[in-house]
Fold Exocyst complex component.
Amino acid sequence: MMHAPSNKRTAAENGDGGIDVVLMRSLGNGEDLGPIVRYAFECGKPEALLHQLRNVVKKKEVEIEELCKLHYDEFILAVDELRGVLVDAYDLKSSLSSENLRLQEVASALLLKLDALLELYLIKKNVTEAIQTLKVCVQVSKLCLACNMHVANNRFYPALKILDLIEKDYLQNTPLKALRKVIDKQIPAIKLHIEKQVCSEFNDWLLHIRSIAKEIGQLAIGQAASARQGDEEKRAHQREAEEQSRSGVNPVYALDSEHIDEDTVLEFDLAPLYRSHHIHTCLGIQEKFCEYYYNNRLMQLNLDLQISSAQPFLESHQPFFAQIAGFFIVEDRVLRTSKGLLSESQVESLWDSAMSKMKSVVEDQFSHTNTANHLLLIKDFVTLFGATLSRHGFQVTPLLEVLDNSRDKYHELLLSECRKQIGDILTSDTFEQMVIKKEYEYNMNVVSFHLQSSDTVPAFPFIAPFSSSVPDACRVVRSFIEDSVSYLSYGGHINFHDVLKKYLDKLMIDVLNEALLSMIHTGNLGVSQAMQIAANIAVLERTCDLFLWQAAQLCSVPLHLVERPHAGLTAKAVFKASQNAAYNALLNVVDSKLDEYLALMSSINWTADEAPEHANDYIHEIVIYLDLLISTAQQILPLDALYKVGVGALHHISDSIVATFLSESLKRFNLNAIIGIDNDLKMLEAFADERFQSTGLSDFKRDCSFRDCLVESRQLVNLLLSNQPDDFMDPVIREKAYGALDYKKVATICEKLKDSPDRLFGSLSNRNAKQNSRKKSMDTLKRRPRRSTENKKMSSCSFVYVIWKWDQETICLLQQAST
């Protein structure tokens, strides 16, 4: 029990000893005690740490005491030595004081002599400075006099150089204050005077350069026009050589002896500007002058961009653009020759401002211009203006885009003018074949548009296959192409052939073709006039290739590109369709005239007692009219059109004859009337065969002749005159002999066929077997078509036989496959 506390203390001391070792090591190494303190508080033993720190302090105090005891003797010796040094210092001070007193006594006399010498040196210095001052003043006076002379003679640059020399080298070194003050006061006055004089000269130059800007612009635009004309002549020679090469003629090349110097320097005086700029640079106010120049030129530009409302733009556009061209030609020269006066950004700013104003002016004026020629004149000059300034590095694309945006309006106006011209041409045309009496007329109206059929000059007078409106219309189209090329040339598009082709198609289709169609549909045309219009359209169709070729030449497009299969004008196909419309109108006129003659069929005795020996009267009138019609068509129309006219007329006659049998006004006819119609058809067929041979159509159209156009009426008459009319029900016979006839029509017409009872259905005693057989056959034909129309049409590979059982009213269809 007595030893328990002792053991407990020992353990605590051992624990505290561990902390002491760590603490001593950390203090010895100079480490931070923070972790140890934190650890002691975390372990709940701060008193142990405090105890250990106190022990460390005690140990360090013991070490300090031991160190002081060890070096005590050395401190005593050091204090003694310091006291000895202090005594030596007092001795040295006493000796220095005595030596100083002796030195002052010896040097007093020498100091008096030195003062006298220094006074003499000062006098000499003053005299020398006075001489130097006089020299400087004399030099400054001479420079001032020279400066005054230069200013009086307007030689400002040497005057400024003198002023600069005075300021830098003499003004601060001038010893005379009064003179320096006067000079310092006069230098700014002289510079201000020079600045005013230079500005006055510069202002005069500004007025002068603005007054001659229009002349400069006109001269430059004239050079651009000359260059353009030279290019056009070269292209014309190139087209001529290409045409000669295509025709097999070796082209002749010639050296162009006339050469237009496109780089001719425009002469105008910029010396006053250079001088003003240089003087202001010497004055150190270059930026001020540059700003002054830019602002004044900007004001001048704004004045130049104003449009006078008192004068039409057509008259004022050339001076307007020439003035602007001259302005920017001057600015371009200033930019390239005077360094630092103008910057590219300033010139671009001026150009952008002018471009914006010019675009708005051109757009506004174009919107109020209603004449194509006026638009072309303005556009032509604007493109010359653009070409002129583009040679000086200015971007003119936005202005050309305005012109391109106006091309639709220009062409609409041009088309409107062409529409009026073509309308007047067609109105004044009599649509008679053109008679050419002189060779120059032939060349002007035929050769110039490649309308000749051969290269041989015909005998005069020459009757052309077209009327006078064709060459007149061709001249309008050619003028349209030239005007369109003039507008589209030198614009924003390099290749404008496709654009021209589109507008050319529009002219040919929407203007020329529509005018012709209007004449066809609304005009009160005779047969010869309708024929001539059809012939004219055929000629105009051929001219499409010529106009496309001319457009390609003017656009400098290789002709082999134009000759490609699908490179032609759409108008060519449209004219082809319009020919059909003209032929249809012609046929309508012919049909109307034929209807007048066919109306005479009403005078036929359809129940005559005797069969006529000759044709009826109406057919004579028809043959005479057809003879005149085909003769006229043979002179005017090509064979293909002649064939269409003949076929159409004969088809109409045949259809009208059949329609007469079907008409409700014809209630009954007999066999004698059919014999009369047969005589009519024979006469008409003979005429058709003769004209088909004499016109040369037998070689041109072998598949269908004029006689074939009468096939329906001929087969109908043959059927009605047949002894076995019921053969019509036999598919083989019908296909061979009556293929053009219709079931319903045959049924209707057969119902109207009523022979006289005395002749056909007399007493049983005098009726022969032949008449009885024909009557039965006709009765069968009358009954069967009514039933057969209820069946389907025969297919190409089968025949349908219909058998009627009249008592049972039933139908059996037997279908046999054809072999």
